[in-house]
From TrEMBL:
Ranges of residues in domain Myosin motor: 32-443
Designated name of the protein: Unconventional myosin-Vb-like
Xref: SMART domains: MYSc
GO terms under biological process: actin filament organization
């Protein structure tokens, strides 16, 4: 076939009669740039990509519908399309009446909940760095605005305040994304009979614990550690004996500890304000920071190999071990002993065995991961307590913000689980969009 392309170049396209593979057909001019992909005459990958590209480059539109699904492109900059006035513009409108927008999807969920008396959920999925967490935050802001609580309880403010805390303790810089969620979260926003927000509940999935003790090159540990180190000079944190993030083993593995355009000390203030808004007492906040500082000190405990590498020891002068014991209130001599030995219990007797240097390091890392995971769970429970309501819930809207899929040279087990979860979601989406359509035709 001799084809004439848009820019008038001629392309020869070989056609094999056996294969019957023809080139993809382009859509007529009038349909290019359409705001709903299902309106295209030919719906194949090149047509979809071309349509998205035209909308993005020529009209600056980052949102496009595909039936009931919203496709978003991350512009990697703040756009002025999320103000209060835009929320009011979309409130009460039908999904197809205005330009595609995350607020239109949120309004549709809100309307269907009120009209059909059915609980709704919004699923945000996509690659790491695609903009899922930000999209979920905008959806929640929409519900907070249109479903503002009738009482003085400021529930909606508390729902929004959970975001900075969860980002501090659950997000980190990866090579794909400076603010990557390293856990999955599902927030259910509860409404009363008049469809006002009365409370919320958050569930989290599979926190990437291994990040606490290991980061790949150019990656960082969880934001909260850097926020603490950047605020080390604050009088209330003097007791924590914090150093610069470069000087802690657990925060310097990835190399550069700073983030472009991010002020960790400023973010620490925001995290503290969010804690206060959720009713976490000053004394509790200090305890949280103590535990986090203790984890950092634990990473710097220095093991010395002894006796041909069969056993190891910690020097008595190890200041990081002293800080760890002081912050957590544990006995120094006991901890020093149990970091280098382990107990084996058999039916008849109990052995105390020496650990090699590598075994001791692994045991220390396991302890750090466990402490962090328990702290993470405690904070989530506390946020849920603050968002809990005694009023009877009439209906809810759920927002699922899952971690993004990434494929590296070497994928951790957690990354495998993350990618698998995304595949399952994708299947759910395919089933929903295509299978249901087919059933409709069959009927």
């Amino acid at each position: 076939l001799r084809l004439k392309l848009e820019d008038d170049t001629i392309l020869e396209y070989p056609v094999d009669p056996k294969e019957n593979k023809f080139p993809f057909l382009r859509n007529p001019d009038i349909l290019v740039g359409e705001n709903d992909l299902t309106a295209l005459s030919y719906l194949h990958e090149p047509a979809v990509l071309h349509n998205l590209k035209v909308r993005f480059l020529e009209s600056n539109h980052i949102y496009t519908y595909c039936g009931i699904v919203l496709v978003a492109i991350n512009p990697y900059e703040q756009l002025p399309i999320y103000g209060q006035d835009v929320i009011y513009a979309y409130s009460g409108q039908n999904m197809g009446d205005m330009d595609p927008h995350i607020f239109a999807v949120a309004e549709e969920a809100y309307k269907q909940m009120a009209r059909d008396e059915k609980n709704q959920s919004i699923i945000v999925s996509g690659e790491s760095g695609a903009g899922k967490t930000v999209s979920a935050k905008y959806a929640m802001r929409f519900f907070a605005s249109v479903g503002g609580s009738s009482s003085e309880s400021n529930v909606e403010e508390k729902v929004l305040a959970s975001s900075p805390i969860m980002e501090a303790i659950g997000n980190a810089k990866t090579t794909r994304n400076d603010n990557s969620s390293r856990f999955g979260k599902y927030i259910q926003i509860g409404f009363d009979k008049r469809y006002r927000i009365i409370g919320a509940n958050m569930r989290t999935y599979l926190l990437e614990k291994s990040r606490v003790v290991f980061q790949a090159p150019d990656e960082r540990n969880y934001h909260i550690f850097y926020q603490l180190c950047a605020s080390a000079s604050l009088p209330e944190l003097k007791d924590l004996s914090l150093l610069d993030a470069k000087d802690f083993f657990y925060t310097s593995l990835g190399g550069d500890t700073s983030l472009e355009g991010v002020d960790d000390a400023e973010d620490f203030e925001k995290t503290k304000q969010a804690f206060t808004l959720l009713g976490v007492k000053e004394s509790y906040q200090m305890t949280i920071f103590k535990i986090l500082a203790a984890v950092l000190h634990l990473g710097n405990v220095d093991f010395r190999s002894e006796r041909d590498g069969e056993s190891c020891s910690i020097t008595n002068q190890d200041e990081h071990l002293h800080h760890f014991c002081r912050l957590l209130g544990v006995e120094h001599s006991q901890l020093e002993h149990w970091l280098c030995h382990r107990k084996l219990v058999t039916t008849s007797e109990t052995y105390i065995k020496n650990m090699s240097l590598q075994q001791a390091v692994n045991a220390r890392n396991a302890l750090a991961k466990h402490i962090y995971a328990q702290l993470f769970n405690w904070i989530v429970q506390h946020i849920n307590k603050a968002l809990h309501t005694t009023v009877k819930q009439h209906s809810f809207i759920g927002v699922l913000d899952i971690y993004g899929f990434e494929t590296f040279e070497y994928n951790s087990f957690e990354q495998f689980c993350i990618n698998y979860a995304n595949e399952k979601l994708q299947q759910q989406f395919n089933l929903h969009v295509f299978k249901l359509e087919q059933d409709e035709y069959m009927r």
